[in-house]
Amino acid sequence: MTFTPNTVFAAVEKAGASDVHIAVGSPLIFRIEGVLTPQGGASLSKT
After folding, report:
1. Which residues make beta-bridge pairs with 1?
2. 25/35 Cα distance (integer angstroms)
3. How far apart are CA 9 and CA 7, in angstroms?
4. Rounded to an integer, what distance in angstroms lies between the CA atom of residue 34 and that of residue 47?
5. Residue 8 and residue 26: Cα distance in Å, rounded?
6. pLDDT band at 1; cut points 50, 70, 90
7. Which of 15, 17, 41, 46 has the most CB atoms less than 10 A away?
């Protein structure tokens, strides 16, 4: 999956998350109702 700001923020909205944690080499992590929730799938890369 290619991550773009639009795809990330659309996923955040769909999940009802209040924020997103983004780090190279890790999957996206959403804060949903105060709980950090890894979103699984691909890890982010520098490219």
Report:
1. none
2. 21
3. 6
4. 30
5. 14
6. low
7. 17
